[in-house]
């Protein structure tokens, strides 16, 4: 807990290598490389349409990157986040049965859920809650993989099953407490005010017990007071729950205040990376934001 | 179209309704006004005029109502699809007396068959079969949000597993139940696995086709299924006792001989009724519990937002598959009872698309996901048509209109589900 | 292999395939624009068959016997009335439910489909209906005993199908209306911001789809001569298969998919088994969905997150 800001640990938790993403003619990401150190708060910033959400989608497995690798390295356990999505067969697979079987396995049972199971959770820019379920149900669903899902035990309401449900409820209440939503436990998620929905989505992501949590514009639509609370919450997650945070944010005050490392994206390319102090004075970043070359839209 | 901006509202309403009436007249005229007769035709001008007039009146009444404040309130109240979501959270202690009601209903259901004539017995059995089918489809459509338009296929598979099984391999009633369930579920799995990873609508059309395929195969494979002539299933029995006048299987004894009573053709139906009733009760228990278990919650979450579910580490394909297979399994069990209820005789005409549509109507009317709603809707939709034989021709028409209106008016059904209420101790 | 049988099956397949293609266009366009299957589309086609027969009956009653005149009037009347059906279906089953849960419009469309079938059944009776042969005559190829033939109607059918497809493609690619349709298909929200009346465009797409189904209905009825109230069901499923095969959202894909499906179905029923031709078409749908869900000409879609 104390060695949070210790200088560069040996191996990064997440490393993104040569990530390229094409949508038809659009080159949304072009050879993106960056690393997220364990237990850090790393921010991904850039102007609108720079490709930040696309990076998230590639990391969390919702898009299959055209090229490049995403490697999660947690305490010596390395997961190739691209492989678990299921890849096309390569010619070499036809002479290498184990590789063939592995790819077949991931093609059949792989998918973005595997990325979460490997320890990466996320929130969405346009909040995606289960709107017509209660707040509590949202958090219980998030614990799906940790619950007793045996049908027979559930039907007979055995001790094992009851204990599992009770634990889930406790975890859910714990997280409600953390994000300050205990009062709303039995309200429909879709009926909550916007700021609460954002916090609930973070709590829901945390219920999956991730190593890395990716937050896509968590402060969008929040008022100044809520934004301050959010930065406290994010710090709390990192300090007390041992997770690494990767966040996309437009609110520079928030970003500069809480992150240790910043990656700047523009037109699908990394144009700068470094500490907040370095980024603040980087001329390339200023140019991208102020649009010295291009016309400024805002 | 004809209305000007400064018309009085009444006149605007009238003009609008007239236009709608006119369009209705154009639409109705050719089909209901001109009836083909060989290469010639007969005219029935009064039908389309009457239909168009009904449309006009309806539209006009609606428009007028929208002009008055209380009418607006009425529309607001009933048009749930506009604005309010119509989902409510249960309040704690809601169901305190529920078990008393359930116990009374259970006992009533048990004694009922002894007071019914043979005809009403068959109707009651059919109604219970539809309760089963409704519950099965309810999981698929109501909870998991997968539109299965070929549910009847699994029903047919169940019925034919029993019939063909007893024809070829001497399968009995009791062993047919688990076997049909397993077989239908297996088939659902094979069909579902490739399709469930696609966009949801593909499932609808694939199941629609699948339902038709099963029927076509049953109809065309003369040598195995008996084609349009159908197949004959074994007589149901209980511990080797049969309910016929004389035993049909070697080693079996008729029920009435064993107990020394006189033969009554009702006994067999009472027996089937009781079995179906108990199975239905079991399923009701099973499915209402399932809804609050991890699996049921996962289904509903998947219906709400598949992408969010994936981000939470849930394998959407296997979760959908579990719902699809469980639905199929229930359909298969329903099929076995149907074969028994039909006097052991089944043929492909019982398994058309309209059957699927009827089951879907049950789910839609009852309230998607709601066990109570589906049970009530199944009973109403099967018993009512039996009472109103005169309207038999219009049955499908009425179901169709009901489906459209329910979606516009009460998309959650008449008896929608309530979200469970939780306290720190557990579910209240 | 007997070549005259093969030739005959290919000719029949081409005719059948053009029809599937025309109906598939309706599925593909609606799917492209609102991302949903129009479940009542098959029944729109069925209605057009009835209207064709009624039209021919009335025109013959007034003593009109010129085939060209008969066909043109029938086409026009059927297109107008059936387009109205398409428009009403959108107004009743889809438009009020634009913001409802995804299942709601699908279920209401199935309701409409049931209503249409039963409405026709109750009004016109469940019996099979027929129309007289209007344009007799065939082209024959081959020897006296081993020949295959193309009827005039089949020629008309293929020509009219391709002509209407060409016209539709022109409308979508070149006119302002078509541009608006494509804009709404790509990004409805953005299109609305730019001042496109998306509701009107969606209506238009339903009308265009219904008009194509109407043309298909007229041609099929003239070609095969008989139909009943349930023809829309299985034809609808097959036309949808054609749309998926060609790549949903793609107009040329719909036509291509239709023709491939028509030909292969025709060959299957000619050389393998007639009873199972529907089973064959359906199995094709499942196989396409498994191995090439984006179809032959469709672009693989990345679901926006
Ligand atoms: N599924 C998709 N299909 C086609 N193009 C896409 C898709 N997803 C993203 N894009 C394109 O990729 C580019 C980058 O988009 P992205 O959403 O990643 O930007 P962003 O940096 O998150 O912007 P913002 O700050 O506005 O959220 C955009 O041009 C966008 O239109
Ligand atoms: Mg973004």
Mean pLDDT of chain A: 88
Count up the domains of chain C.
Answer: 1
Question: Any idea what the radius of gyration of chain A is?
Answer: 20 Å
Instruction: Tell me the distance between the termini of chain A.
Output: 41 Å
Major β-sheet annotation of chain C = 2 strands, antiparallel
What fraction, in percent, of the residue positions of chain C are helical? over 70%
Describe the sheet with the most strands of chain A.
6 strands, mixed
Taken as a percent bin, the fraction of beta residues of chain A is 15-25%
Mean pLDDT of chain C: 89
Q: Order of strands in the sheet with the most strands of chain A? A: 6-7-8-3-9-10
Q: N-to-C SSE series of chain C?
A: HHHHEEEHHHHEHHH
Poorly predicted sequence stretches spanning 5 or more consecutive residues of chain C:
none
What's the short version?
Chain A has 298 residues and is an alpha/beta fold. Chain A has helices spanning 52-59, 97-109, 112-118, 135-142, 151-156, 159-178, 194-206, 224-241, 252-258, 276-280, 283-290, and strands spanning 14-23, 26-36, 41-45, 67-74, 77-80, 120-122, 212-216, 244-248, 261-266, 269-274.
């Amino acid at each position: 807990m104390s060695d949070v800001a210790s200088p560069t640990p040996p191996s990064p938790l997440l490393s993104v290598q040569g990530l390229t993403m094409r949508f038809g003619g659009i080159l949304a990401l072009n050879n993106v490389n960056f690393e997220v150190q364990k237990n850090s708060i790393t921010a991904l910033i850039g102007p609108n349409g720079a490709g930040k959400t696309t990076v998230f989608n590639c990391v969390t497995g919702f898009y299959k990157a055209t090229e490049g690798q995403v490697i999660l390295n947690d305490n010596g356990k390395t997961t190739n986040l691209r492989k678990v999505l299921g890849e096309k067969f390569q010619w070499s697979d036809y002479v290498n049965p184990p590789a063939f079987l592995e790819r077949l396995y991931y093609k059949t049972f792989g998918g973005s859920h595997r990325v979460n199971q490997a320890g990466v959770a996320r929130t969405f820019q346009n909040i995606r809650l289960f709107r017509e379920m209660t707040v509590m149900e949202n958090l219980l669903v998030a614990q799906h993989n940790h619950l007793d899902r045996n049908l027979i035990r559930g039907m007979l309401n055995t001790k094992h099953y009851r204990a599992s449900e009770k634990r889930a409820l406790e975890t859910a209440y714990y997280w409600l407490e953390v994000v300050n939503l205990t009062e709303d436990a039995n309200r429909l998620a879709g009926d909550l005010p916007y700021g609460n929905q954002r916090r609930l989505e973070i709590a829901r992501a945390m219920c999956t017990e991730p190593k890395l949590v990716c937050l896509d514009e968590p402060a969008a639509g929040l008022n100044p007071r809520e934004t301050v609370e959010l930065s406290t919450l994010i710090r709390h997650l990192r300090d007390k729950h041992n997770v690494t945070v990767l966040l996309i944010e437009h609110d520079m005050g928030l970003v500069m205040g809480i992150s240790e490392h910043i990656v700047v994206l523009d037109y699908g390319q990394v144009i700068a990376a470094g500490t907040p102090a370095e980024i603040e004075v980087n001329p390339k970043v200023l140019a991208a934001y102020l649009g010295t070359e291009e016309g400024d839209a805002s | 179209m004809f209305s000007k901006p400064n018309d009085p509202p009444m006149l605007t309403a009238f003009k609008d309704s007239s236009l709608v009436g006119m369009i209705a007249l154009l639409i109705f005229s050719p089909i209901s006004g001109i009836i083909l007769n060989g290469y010639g035709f007969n005219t029935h001008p009064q039908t389309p005029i009457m239909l168009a007039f009904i449309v006009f009146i309806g539209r006009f009444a609606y428009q007028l109502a929208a002009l008055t404040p209380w009418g607006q309130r009425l529309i607001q109240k009933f048009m749930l699809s506009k604005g309010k979501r119509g989902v409510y959270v249960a309040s704690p202690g809601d169901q305190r007396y529920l078990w008393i009601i359930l116990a009374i209903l259970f006992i009533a259901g048990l004694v009922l068959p002894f007071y019914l004539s043979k005809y009403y017995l068959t109707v009651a059995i059919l109604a219970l079969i539809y309760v089963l089918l409704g519950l099965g489809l309810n999981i698929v459509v109501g909870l998991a949000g997968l539109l299965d338009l070929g549910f009847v296929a699994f029903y047919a598979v169940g019925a034919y597993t029993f019939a063909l099984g007893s024809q070829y391999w001497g399968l009995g009633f009791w062993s047919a139940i688990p076997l049909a369930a397993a077989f239908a579920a297996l088939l659902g799995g094979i069909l579902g696995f490739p399709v469930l990873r696609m966009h949801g609508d593909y499932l609808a059309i694939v199941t629609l086709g699948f339902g038709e395929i099963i029927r076509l195969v049953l109809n065309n494979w003369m040598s195995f299924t008996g084609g349009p002539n159908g197949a004959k299933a074994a007589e149901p029995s209980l511990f080797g006792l049969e309910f016929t006048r004389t035993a049909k299987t070697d080693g079996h004894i008729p029920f009435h001989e064993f107990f020394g009573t006189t033969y009554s053709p009702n006994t067999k139906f009472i027996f089937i009724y009781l079995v179906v009733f108990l199975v239905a009760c079991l399923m009701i228990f099973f499915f209402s519990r399932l809804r609050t278990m991890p699996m049921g919650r996962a289904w509903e979450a998947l219906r709400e937002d598949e992408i969010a579910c994936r981000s939470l580490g849930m394998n959407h394909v296997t979760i959908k598959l579990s719902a699809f297979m469980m639905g199929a399994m229930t359909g298969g069990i329903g099929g076995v009872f149907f074969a028994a209820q039909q006097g052991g005789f089944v043929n492909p005409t019982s398994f058309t698309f309209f059957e699927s549509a009827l089951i879907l109507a049950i789910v839609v009317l009852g309230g998607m996901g709601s066990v109570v709603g589906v049970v009530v809707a199944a009973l109403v939709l099967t018993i009512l048509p039996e009472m109103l034989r005169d309207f038999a021709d219009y049955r499908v028409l009425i179901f169709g209109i009901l489906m459209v209106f329910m979606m516009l008016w009460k998309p959650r059904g008449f008896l929608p589900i309530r979200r469970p209420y939780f306290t720190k101790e557990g579910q209240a | 292999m007997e070549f005259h049988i093969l030739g005959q099956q290919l000719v029949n397949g081409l005719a059948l395939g053009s029809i599937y293609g025309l109906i598939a266009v309706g599925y593909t366009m609606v799917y492209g624009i609102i991302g949903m299957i129009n479940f009542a589309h098959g029944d729109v086609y069925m209605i057009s068959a009835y209207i064709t027969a009624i039209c021919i009956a009335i025109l013959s009653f007034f003593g009109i016997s010129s085939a060209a005149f008969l066909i043109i009037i029938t086409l026009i009347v059927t297109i107008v009335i059936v387009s109205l059906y398409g428009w009403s279906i959108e107004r009743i089953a889809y438009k009020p439910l634009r913001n409802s849960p995804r299942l709601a419009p699908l279920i209401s469309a199935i309701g409409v489909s049931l209503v249409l079938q039963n409405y026709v059944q109750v009004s016109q009776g469940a019996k099979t209906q027929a129309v007289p042969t209007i344009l007799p005559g065939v082209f024959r190829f081959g020897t006296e005993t081993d020949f295959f033939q193309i009827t005039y109607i089949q020629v008309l059918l293929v020509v009219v199908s391709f002509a209407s497809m060409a016209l539709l493609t022109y409308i979508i690619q070149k006119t302002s209306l078509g541009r608006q349709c494509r804009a709404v298909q790509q990004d409805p929200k953005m299109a609305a911001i730019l001042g496109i009346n998306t509701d009107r465009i969606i209506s238009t797409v339903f009308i265009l789809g219904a008009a194509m189904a109407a043309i298909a209905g007229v041609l099929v009825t003239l070609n095969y001569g008989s139909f009943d109230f349930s023809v829309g069901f299985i034809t609808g499923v097959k036309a949808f298969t054609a749309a998926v095969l060609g790549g949903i959202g793609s107009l040329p894909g719909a036509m291509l998919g239709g023709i491939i499906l028509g030909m292969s179905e025709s060959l299957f029923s000619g050389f393998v088994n007639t009873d199972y031709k529907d089973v064959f078409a359906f199995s094709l749908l499942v196989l396409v969905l498994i191995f090439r869900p984006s179809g032959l000409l469709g672009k693989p879609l990345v679901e926006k997150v």
